[in-house]
Amino acid sequence: MTWIQAPLPLIVIPLFMVVSCTGISTPLTFSLAMRNQKKHAGSASAFLGILPYLLGGIAIPFVGIAGENTAVPMGITIVIANLGGLLSYLLFVRKNPSA
Fold it and tell me: CB 42: neighbour CB atoms within 10 A?
């Protein structure tokens, strides 16, 4: 939408959809990840707690790489992160018969 200079509502609506889906899926994902961690629940919780900050810290330079006047790098970073999540699911969860 930013490449074609779309009006603000056409940019905000897809961004709202991505952010609201993240807010819904993150707690569910964390609870499912913690389900099988009986003896290592503390370590697993600490890892899941630091992971968003770590990945966010890695993504921040890429989001702002073109300056503050364009949202294209943010969109590309969101697409790459979503594809990474899909790849993680396909590699680790889908092939695991216990999941």
Answer: 9
Token pair listed for 64? 């702002």
Angle, alpha carbons 30-80-21 (nearest 5°) = 45
Angle at 78 between CA 36 and CA 11, to 5 degrees: 130
The pTM assigned to this predicted structure is 0.68
The rounded distance, in Å, linking the Cα atoms of 78 and 19 is 10
Q: How far is CA 12 from the centre of its chain?
A: 18
At 58-78, the pLDDT tens digits run 988 888 888 777 778 888 888
Distance CA 6, CA 95 (A): 41
Question: Which uninterrupted H or E stretch holds 80?
Answer: helix 72-88
